[in-house]
């Protein structure tokens, strides 16, 4: 290991699709969406430091489900950025991932890990790349990566690559629940009954817990019915969140993780503790979402 090198630590925030409308399908098979997404303080953690040779290791609750080879988005992100920068400007690095989010769970964990690696490596290697350049590299890795690079409240359109920031968005008290079932995004999209749905309604002029909850009641996650048919445990997770007092509950992304919206962080913590006691084998996390003004890229 190279000596005297600072370890760069970054958070890889969970992405929560508060609403997700499927609005069409392109000729190349990619689905068009409109989604309101937020990012939570809870997530994975990435550490990067210069090294004598490239290395990638994983720890954490869900480490055993993470591939360590070139199929991992972290490795793909490193290699894509190195190709962009040139070998001479991208020396070997050791990357360590603490995997706290379930794999294939609808919260963009792998994409968020890749986004953290792109940002961290750009800084570690001293690359002069702006946000748009990083987003282009991110999009080559997956449609969710540009969203995760932004890591602030946003509306995503197109295939998820057309992003509009949502200003003055408050921190939300959230409980994330996954009943321990991974689900294939491709399988969920294949099972969709209707791919040509209306887009999102306009957001309320002033967003707080109550106005957002009322707005969410007029929206959908168009992937939820198909995902629930594939994994009925999603319905149980939603029921558990509602019984715990969530002001609103819905599946995120393609599932199977579900979120409950709570009026305060303390109420969310109490609800999470209750759910965890009843379902000790489930993934349960109380957290808060990032605000429009938060610094999403370093420690929080």
Strand % is 25-35%
Helicity, in percent? 25-40%
Q: What value does the Rg take, in angstroms?
A: 19 Å
Q: What integer is the average pLDDT?
A: 94
Along the chain, the helix and strand elements come as: EEEHEHHHEEEHHHHEEHE
- CA-based shape: globular
End-to-end C-alpha gap:
28 Å
CATH class of the largest domain: Alpha Beta
State the CATH architecture of the largest domain: 2-Layer Sandwich
* Biggest beta sheet attributes: 6 strands, mixed
Tally of helical runs? 9
Given as residue ranges, the uncertain stretches (5+ residues, pLDDT < 50) are none
Instruction: Tell me the count of domains.
Output: 2
The computed structural class is alpha+beta
CATH topology annotation of the largest domain = Ribosomal Protein S5, domain 2
Overall number of strands: 10
Name the descriptors.
4-stranded antiparallel beta sheet, Ribosomal Protein S5, domain 2, 6-stranded mixed beta sheet, 26% strand, 300 residues, alpha+beta
Characterise this structure:
The protein has 300 residues and is of the alpha+beta class. The protein has two domains: 8-165, Ribosomal Protein S5, domain 2 (2-Layer Sandwich), CATH 3.30.230; 173-288, Alpha-Beta Plaits. Helix content is 31%, strand content 26%. The chain is built from nine helices and ten strands. The chain has helices at 73-85, 109-124, 131-141, 145-150, 185-190, 209-216, 224-230, 233-243, 265-278; strands at 8-25, 31-50, 55-59, 93-98, 154-157, 162-165, 173-178, 248-251, 258-262, 283-288. Strands 1, 2, 3, 4, 5 and 6 form a six-stranded mixed sheet that branches. Strands 8-9-7-10 form a four-stranded antiparallel sheet, with helices on both faces. Helix 1 runs parallel beside helix 2 (109-124). The two termini are 28 Å apart. The mean pLDDT is 94.
């Amino acid at each position: 290991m190279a000596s005297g090198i600072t370890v760069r630590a970054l958070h890889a925030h969970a992405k929560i699709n508060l609403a997700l409308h499927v609005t069409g399908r392109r000729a190349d098979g990619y689905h068009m969406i409109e989604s309101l997404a937020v990012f939570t303080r809870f997530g994975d953690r990435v550490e990067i430091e210069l090294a004598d040779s490239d290395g990638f290791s994983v720890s954490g609750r869900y480490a055993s489900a993470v591939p360590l080879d070139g199929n991992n988005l972290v490795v793909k992100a490193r290699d894509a950025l190195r190709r962009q920068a040139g070998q001479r400007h991208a020396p070997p690095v050791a990357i360590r991932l603490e995997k706290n989010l379930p794999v294939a769970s609808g919260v963009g964990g792998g994409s968020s890990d890749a986004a953290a690696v792109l940002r961290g490596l750009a800084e570690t290697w001293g690359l002069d790349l702006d946000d748009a350049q990083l987003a282009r590299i991110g999009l080559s890795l997956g449609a969710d990566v540009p969203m995760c690079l932004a890591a602030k409240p946003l509306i995503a359109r197109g295939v998820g690559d057309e992003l509009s920031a949502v200003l003055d968005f408050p921190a939300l008290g959230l409980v994330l629940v996954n009943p321990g079932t991974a689900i294939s995004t491709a399988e969920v999209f294949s099972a969709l009954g209707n791919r040509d749905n209306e887009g999102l309604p306009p957001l309320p002029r002033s967003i707080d817990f109550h106005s957002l909850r009322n707005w969410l009641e007029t929206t959908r996650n168009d992937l939820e019915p198909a995902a629930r048919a594939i994994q009925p445990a999603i319905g149980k997770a939603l029921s558990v969140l509602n019984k715990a007092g969530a002001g609103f509950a819905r599946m995120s992304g393609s599932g199977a993780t579900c979120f409950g919206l709570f009026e305060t962080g303390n109420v969310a913590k109490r609800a999470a503790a209750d759910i965890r006691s009843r379902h000790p084998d489930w993934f349960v996390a109380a957290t808060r979402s990032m605000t429009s003004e938060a610094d999403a890229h370093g420690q929080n």
